Amino acid sequence: MAKFSKEELRKKLTEEEYRITQEKGTEAPFSGVFYDYNEKGIYTCKVCGISLFSSDTKFNSGTGWPSFDRPMDKENVILEEDKSDGMVRTEVLCRNCGAHLGHVFPDGPRNLPDGRQATNERFCINSCALDFKGGGKK
């Protein structure tokens, strides 16, 4: 697992990015740069750069956060039970560096237009936890 000191992370990340990825925060809905972003490419971890999600699996959930029906590689994320804020949810973490990314919910799309098997999952991810590599229209 990639390890970064608090000092390194404070220099690398904005205050908001640090709060979200290191302190398990959440950005306000409809405020993140990627919630309505439609370029084709790969979403990577803001902290360590590992590939996490493809634009091919991104969908508009109407929630105000970037939503994906699956990670690029399930090995690149860790799913853990989260009982914070009086709820029981499943937290999504970067396997490479442990950064908090968001949560996954069992209410993803049931019908996928490209013939992929539906996962019925919605990976609700904070824009502040992501970078983007790629280009071109989706």
CATH architecture: Beta Complex
CATH class: Mainly Beta
Order of helices and strands: HHEEEEEEEEE
Number of domains: 1
Strand order of the largest sheet: 3-4-8-7-6-5
Structural class given helices, strands, pairing?
mainly beta
- Number of contiguous helices: 2
Q: Can you characterise this structure?
A:
The protein is mostly beta strands. It has one domain (6-137): Peptide methionine sulfoxide reductase (Metal Binding Protein, Guanine Nucleotide Exchange Factor, Chain A), CATH 2.170.150. 12% of the residues lie in helices and 33% in strands. The protein is built from two helices and nine strands. The protein has helices at 6-12, 15-23, and strands at 39-45, 51-54, 58-59, 67-68, 77-82, 89-94, 100-105, 122-125, 130-137. The strands form two sheets. The protein has a six-stranded antiparallel β-sheet with strand order 3-4-8-7-6-5. It is globular and about 45 Å long. The mean pLDDT is 93.
Keywords:
Metal Binding Protein, Guanine Nucleotide Exchange Factor, Chain A; 2 helices; mainly beta; single chain; six-stranded antiparallel β-sheet; 138 residues
Topology:
Elements: H1 6-12, H2 15-23, E1 39-45, E2 51-54, E3 58-59, E4 67-68, E5 77-82, E6 89-94, E7 100-105, E8 122-125, E9 130-137
Antiparallel strand pairs: 1-2, 1-9, 3-4, 4-8, 5-6, 6-7, 7-8
